[in-house]
Amino acid sequence: MWVFGYGSLLWNPGFEYQEKAIASLPGWHRSFCMRSIHHRGTVDKPGLVLALDAMAGAHCQGLALSVAPEHRDTTLDYLRERELVSSAYLEKMLHIDLADGRKVEAVTYVIDPDHVQYCHLELEEQAQIIATAVGGRGPNTDYLHNTASHLWELGIEDAELDWLSARVRELTAV
What we know:
With 174 residues, the chain is an alpha+beta fold. Helices cover 29% and strands 37% of the residues.
């Protein structure tokens, strides 16, 4: 079983894997399009977390993690508890392209565009929210900066995340 990570799964998978590979998911893009009311914000002051949003012609680069057959069920249980906490994500099996040319199916969590937590915000508004939101897993800024830095370490370019990370650092500098 493969799992596709594009946000916190890059730096905090939380499960045992046997192989990791840079991968690309066609037809989707990484976006701060989900209001976070649990992990990086609250109901009263939502933060933002990344989700995969469908977009024709787009592709999202991330990390594919291979799970051994004996860990499949416990990994799925863990991921469902972690990712499906508010039902804003949908679990899908999607085709991804590994950097070495292999094509595999991967468990992937994408945004439900009909869910109340789904949003489309301009980058500046995203930065303003991320700069101040805090949830059960800590500051929204940590989530943004960890994701941006791990993408950079993996050699994955994401201009929007780089801009957001720099802008949020400006907003939080005192």
